[in-house]
Known about the structure:
The mean pLDDT is 91. This protein is α+β, with helices and mostly antiparallel strands. It has helices at 2-36, 60-72, 89-103, 122-130, 146-151, 199-214, 242-252, 270-281, 299-312, 346-351, 362-377, 384-388, 392-404, and strands at 45-46, 50-59, 77-82, 107-113, 134-138, 158-161, 165-169, 187-196, 230-237, 257-261, 285-290, 316-320, 324-325, 329-332, 336-340, 354-359, 379-381. Helix 3 links the parallel strand 3 (77-82) and strand 4.
Amino acid sequence: xxxxxxxxxxxxxxxxxxxxxxxxxxxxxxxxxxxxxxxxxxxxxxxxxxxxxxxxxxxxxxxxxxxxxxxxxxxxxxxxxxxxxxxxxxxxxxxxxxxxxxxxxxxxxxxxxxxxxxxxxxxxxxxxxxxxxxxxxxxxxxxxxxxxxxxxxxxxxxxxxxxxxxxxxxxxxxxxxxxxxxxxxxxxxxxxxxxxxxxxxxxxxxxxxxxxxxxxxxxxxxxxxxxxxxxxxxxxxxxxxxxxxxxxxxxxxxxxxxxxxxxxxxxxxxxxxxxxxxxxxxxxxxxxxxxxxxxxxxxxxxxxxxxxxxxxxxxxxxxxxxxxxxxxxxxxxxxxxxxxxxxxxxxxxxxxxxxxxxxxxxxxxxxxxxxxxxxxxxxxxxxxxxxxxxxxxxxxxxxxxxxxxxxx
Length: 408
């Protein structure tokens, strides 16, 4: 009897190993073919320089309250795209609000990334559609490039209410984003509310994404052209090298300081890395703030090699210690502030569809700089011993993370 069990287990192990091998080979062929044919490559869209009133939200509860309030006051249309949604009370409140607005005669379009929305139940979708909400998943996995389409995610987070108010940034929908998930604790993020002519660019990008994923044209709605006080520019990225080129160009312009806030520090883009090192060699003070405490697996361990490289170059690295830092921000001198959806990792640099807001207004930047400085104050400076004197467990996790860092 025991011999039979052993043989069965051996057979199962062989099948599992064989299946993994087949999947790895298939995945490699799939991705190579997709890259060769540039299936997912598309030039970024750089929108015009605009003037809007911009409000920054870093607290999830304040952000949710304002977003939900703005949606509840909508009279004509609501476009909403978040990368992910949870299955909890906050998510249910959000979905219920969309249903209420649709039943009240407001035109509601709601999209979520196919993998990011994996927790969205079929019953919830049916209730949305029954209430008249237009719903779609973004970037559904598809043949013949199954693995490449799984990798290629829409990471943008765009909201438009009546063409008057827009949102873009790092928050998603769920209780962890308002700091109510005990294991994660406080959630620190950056999300912009846009009031003014920049809203039309967010609307246009949403319409493009919706048509790309559904082949349906959204009815044309108006958006305000009223100017605000803050100069800014949106850029929508699809994949490829252009994002790295944009970042490198901006970092090359730095004269005094570069501050980067990112949840994950997996800087394996050569153009960006070289531009930061070059800046440091010119005497520019470079600070990188990341989140050791995270909602994602192995990202801290994947950061270790890059932290070591950074420290050797005289780059200051800080670990946020007040909870989870999920901000996607950089500040160059006091001339360029970026707030968007791009993380410093392979997925954002090479695989995801992203969108950033570049702010070129010294007055506005002077108001945000103390907020960034507060994040640094709430962090611990990382030393060489922190990343060199690791436990055996951490060393093993680092090696595993290194093997899969391209997909983290």
